[in-house]
Design goal:
Order of helices and strands: EEEEEE
Largest sheet: 3 strands, antiparallel
Distance between the termini: 110 Å
Strand order of the largest sheet: 1-2-3
Radius of gyration: 33 Å
Structural class: mainly beta
Strand content: 15-25%
Number of helices: 0
């Protein structure tokens, strides 16, 4: 009997999501492998850490997406990128310019409200910033007091 000592061997084929296991057996003096790789996806656009299209590259079609972060004058552009199978936001808001003391219609302190200057903390804005606090130096002087 020829090749009676040849034992079946485990085999692997395909890459990424197409990787499969099989067995190589000796048939009429030659090893025949029954391993068949899986079918690849058309694209690898999901950010999942898997080579879905079986080309040896992981998540290469998962395109970065534009994002923004921060509010007011601190708002900045960034991107959401696929890194090691997970979406990662890359965005750094700008630093605040200071307080909203200029009444310029901009959110200088990046709190989401433009010209919210209230120097005495009584909750009423001074008139030049669109409020009705007649004395923004005194917390006891406010509309209705």
């Amino acid at each position: 009997m020829v090749d009676e000592d040849a034992r079946p061997r485990a085999s692997r084929c395909g890459v990424g999501a197409c990787a499969r296991e099989g067995t190589a057996r000796c048939v009429q003096g030659a090893f025949v492998d029954d391993c068949r790789p899986g079918a690849p996806a058309a694209r690898d656009a999901t950010c999942d850490g898997v080579d879905d299209d079986c080309d040896g590259q992981v998540d290469e079609d998962a395109a970065p997406q534009p994002i923004t972060c921060g509010v007011g004058l601190c708002r900045a552009a960034g991107e959401r990128a696929c890194v090691a199978g997970a979406w990662l936001d890359r965005c750094a808001p700008r630093a605040p310019l200071g307080d909203d003391g200029t009444c310029d219609g901009r959110d200088d302190d990046c709190d989401g409200v433009a010209d919210d200057r209230d120097l005495d903390g009584d909750g009423a804005l001074e008139p030049d910033c669109g409020g009705d606090d007649c004395d923004d130096q005194s917390a006891v002087a406010y509309p209705g007091s």
